[in-house]
Amino acid sequence: MEMYPLKTLSAEAFAPFGTIIEHSFENPTGRDYQIVASAPGQGWVIGILELKRNIAPYLERHLYSQESHEPLSGTSILIVSEPQTPDDLHVFLLDKPVCLKEGIWHQAMAISEKAVIKVVENIDVSSENSETRKFPAEVRLGAVI
């Protein structure tokens, strides 16, 4: 029986096999969202979204794309509403991966000092495919039920 050594997972060691999905906190673009893997011509991208505590200035929606939100670190919430009722907000503790339907208004917010979530979405999602909307009022969190 052959023994195989357990290797430390690093970007360099794993490069021949794929990509480690991680966020560079020295992101050169200065944006909170960073694409970390994609399949050009195949229709999807994986991004990492770094969230700051209590910062979520707007809702957005993607008319032609579903979008997953998968918590990686910290504690975050997901604020959602249906397409026809954007002012009827629903707030969920994001403690499991979710996939949003097309057209759902949404925004994620850290309730810990910082939170990081993985986002998988259609490669064509862009400003012409998405809309943004200011919150109807200041969002305050009530008790978690």
Short structural summary:
The chain has 145 residues and is mostly beta strands. The protein has one helix and ten strands, in the order αββββββββββ. The chain has a single domain, classed as Sandwich (Jelly Rolls).
Can you offer a commentary on this structure?
This protein has 145 residues and is mostly beta strands. The protein has a single domain (20-134), classed as Sandwich (Jelly Rolls), CATH 2.60.120.10. The protein is built from one helix and ten strands. Strand 5 and strand 6 (90-93) form a beta hairpin. The chain is globular and about 60 Å long.
Overall geometry: globular
N-to-C terminal Cα separation, in Å? Answer: 53 Å
Per CATH, what is the topology?
Answer: Jelly Rolls
The CATH superfamily is identified as Jelly Rolls
| Total E-strand runs | 10
The overall pLDDT, averaged over residues, is: 76
Top keywords for this entry?
1 helix, 5-stranded antiparallel beta sheet, 10 strands, 42% strand, 3% helix, 145 residues, Jelly Rolls, mainly beta, 3-stranded antiparallel beta sheet, globular
Give the topology.
Blueprint: H1 11-14, E1 33-39, E2 44-52, E3 58-62, E4 67-73, E5 76-81, E6 90-93, E7 98-100, E8 105-110, E9 114-122, E10 130-134
Antiparallel strand pairs: 1-2, 2-9, 3-10, 4-7, 4-9, 5-6, 5-8
